[in-house]
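Following up on my earlier message about 3-hydroxy-3-methylglutaryl-coenzyme A. Here are the inputs again, as you asked, copied directly from the submission form:
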Amino acid sequence: MKIGIDKIGFYTPHLYVDMNKLADARKVEPEKFIIGIGQEKMSVPPITQDAVTMAANAALEILEESDREKIDYVIFATESGIDHSKAAAIYVHRLLGINPNARSIEVKEACYGATAAIHIAKGHIALNPESKVLVLGSDISRYGLNTSGEVTQGAGAVAILMSANPRIIAIEDPSAYHTEDVMDFWRPLYSNVAFVQGKYSVELYISFFQNVWEQYKKKTGLELKDFESFCFHLPYTRLGLKALKTVIDEGAEEEQERLLANFELSRSYNKVVGNIYTGSLYLSLLSLLELNTDIKAGARIGLFSYGSGAVGEFFSGIVEPDYRDFLYVERHGKLLSSRREVCISEYEEIFQETSLADISGKKFPIEKDPAVICLAGVKDHMREYVYKCNEI
Ligand code: HMG
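Thanks, got it. Here's what our run produced:
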């Protein structure tokens, strides 16, 4: 039985910063951010968006009534959780009106969380072929103003509907994975920004990629030539390119050209959104599938997932016939092009406002946020989410 991705939704907040302007403000050459890091814009989340609202907004665009009835598992992957105890999945479950006879949980392993969720979903569907599982990856990447990680911030969510006989991509077996206890990037419970050993994290990312790629080749007998494209977790888009270049010589010239050209398409959305942690790899997949109109049914896509701390996994998927009919190309183009640019001082104000540890008793200006689902305030330490209209 084929199991995989039936639909993918995406959401990012309506505000962004232009990296040329951030570079000017930080007295850095813009080429460092645009070329050296590979980021052009970064999404900025207003106080009315958090991990829950972004995930719910992403899922809103893909779910039909029949999906809501068949979903019996909601798995929310995030490292920007809003509660140490209650799963973010439960809020989304209610906001989207999903079948009450469902499991709803939150999973965590840095940016790897959504990949873990996809494999949990796959196992669940193998045992329960009628089931559909909603996998959410939603995060706000925060390093702090004037830090070296600032250029790699971002915000957004993906919502993935997993099912048997998927209409976009069937996930193949086996995959190759690797865990090591390392301190490359982490966020202690008392901090709202991440701590990072930047250069070390980059080295680990590349060595994990090489490790799992070697393992994957041994397990499957597949080679570079068997892939239409590779998609990477993209904390910043240049890093995926660096990783790809470490193995590209394994292919003939024509294969190298194809993989490099497809990599460019697979990083387009990530370049203008920034790091969305758990959702980053799947945003890259979406970017590839939506922007390359030429990918044929049966093409194999390689997927490299990395979560600091660290876990890495390489796995693959086969593109299904008619997959294009189940993408939301126009809507995603509009979501990205209709965002409003904020100047650096406005971004800094928003950053400070959203850093407050205690927001209890506050109401937020949801009328300024075009998103359908917003955080309206916090009362008695309970977050109040609103669904502003019935249409998206
Ligand atoms: P940095 O020290 O500001 O930058 O930190 P740099 O000096 O290394 O420069 C970056 C690149 O720009 C270099 O290229 C420069 O040569 C180039 P490279 O050596 O990489 O080939 N450059 C220029 N290029 C063109 N024109 C110029 C120019 N000037 C310089 N004028 C760093 C960069 C990424 C380390 C920092 O931003 C950081 O710490 N970011 C956060 C951590 C991160 O993203 N790590 C990635 C791997 S870990 C991961 O993926 C997990 C994560 O997503 C979290 C999770 O799992 O939850 C982060």
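One observation from looking it over: The chain has 13 helices and 17 strands. Hope that helps, and feel free to reply on this thread.
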